[in-house]
Amino acid sequence: MREFRRDPVIGRWVIISSERAKRPFAFSKYEREKNNIEECPFCWGNEKFTPPEIVSYRQQGTQKDTPGWWIRVIPNKYPALRIEGEVIRQAEGIYDKITGIGAHEVIIETQHHDKDIYELELQYVEDIFKIYRDRILDLKRDIRFEYILIFKNCGYQAGATLSHPHSQLIAMPMVPVRIKQEIFGALKYYEYKERCVFCDIINYELQQGSRVVIENNDFVAICPYASRFPFEVWVLPKRHDPIYEDIHSDELKNLATIMQIINKKLNLALDNPPYNYLLHTSPLKELNLKHYHWHFEIIPKLSGVGGFEWGTGFYINPVPPEEAAKFLIEV
Amino acid sequence: MREFRRDPVIGRWVIISSERAKRPFAFSKYEREKNNIEECPFCWGNEKFTPPEIVSYRQQGTQKDTPGWWIRVIPNKYPALRIEGEVIRQAEGIYDKITGIGAHEVIIETQHHDKDIYELELQYVEDIFKIYRDRILDLKRDIRFEYILIFKNCGYQAGATLSHPHSQLIAMPMVPVRIKQEIFGALKYYEYKERCVFCDIINYELQQGSRVVIENNDFVAICPYASRFPFEVWVLPKRHDPIYEDIHSDELKNLATIMQIINKKLNLALDNPPYNYLLHTSPLKELNLKHYHWHFEIIPKLSGVGGFEWGTGFYINPVPPEEAAKFLIEV
Question: What SS3 state is found at A254?
Fold first, then answer.
């Protein structure tokens, strides 16, 4: 079974995908992520253990599905959604569902089994953010899709089942409720102030200073004022743009630089914590949300935090973002 | 520092409480919850290790803050909020904050260090749900408070730092955004259908059958149609009521019974998983939300689930609720 189901109260779409339960380790209590290079399906030489690649950046003259690549995009072997079929919207009694159509891809970020992005050369990090853009541009031609989520789980506690660095992409036929709420909140602000709330945040933070971790010409990294989690970091483009895939080629380098520095700082400050990041960008068919502003949200997963918060949507954060920012600046 | 801060985009209030970072184990990477009876501050004989009790159910003739109780309510030793002071709403630059005023209490559910609720005699479980009601009725007389959250973290992975069974209560001067969204969604449904969405869910589920785990005269336990997590269970009262503390005394027994059975089934099915539950009830100053319906949401925390979901509000659930319900019925 693979389908989207809508919570009739909140309006939240959830993917019910029983194929996912077949993954190795799916509910094992004590297993950690697979960390053995010989067996790692994301390492050079093991390409045969994954579905055929969708696209890769690779050395000239090397063959598809063989070594020689430095970024490789493949379909998820245990996809939450399937790519073939029609998007059918149906009632199920009093409820609403949609067929589980979508793309679920894995972006293997590097051939190096255990290098986090701060350990890669800058040009290779730039390519990660470039390939996010490429994949969105390719998939948005498919008119069935309304939204593309791009995210990274690093570390078992953050949901990764393989330790080799990778991010994921899910293209889906609706807009996630969290993104809808964010856009709705930003719209209310815009209607009142006639300004983008994210631009206001950027300007105020740069002027105020205490929550800015780092900035460069194109981007700023802040610990947000109402951080849900200790050491939560947002990376925002200074140039107002609602759409990630509109990023200019010359901005990719500065994005890679700031993401790499934040990654290094979080690893140093928190002793290589598990973490998630998520790209927040416009729905595919919204061509000009002047009140919205794409950005990345990065969340290290610290132990002793996040039990209660997990299911309730209510947050108690023991580390003020000003302290987190100070620590990250100094580290 | 203890304050509420409002996310300017989503409108989510977050508690920033640096006092909480002083707890033992706050960010330790490998520690598990304290599990030593001699040192357990929630055991009989160790009452001196906690702040003085607020209220308790105890054997006649025994003294406050001494053994003899079977339920004991105390202020949290590391409170996220403080009870004394004025609720002051202020701007901070472009942002909004409120002083961190509120009650943060611990409900020690039993004198037994390692009995989960299914292992207690029914009358003692009934008293847990009775004392929730008592505490709400007491605290709602304080006009500073707008909402009371009651929740339980059981197990380290679910956020508990002490293993002795306890739940928590937080009274606060605003309504959490998740509750607001739920009430808003239920209102939209009501406006369209002129019926309570939760009553519709109960009626439909009882008629359809495949997601009902158990019911009795007053309550029904279901695996919700759009379950975010494997084995998520909601317990709803059949009698429409938006307000938990309106529960009739003769309903408490059936609530205790159904919560105990669900607890036993989840422990059997999933090998004593960490779990959270959360009471969803009306804001204190909303006296008649005819479109809302109080209930409990119970979420077992299984490994291999919940990394990505944690920070994003987007959910992939590998276990269809019909399968979860079937398994829980049979176990």
Answer: helix
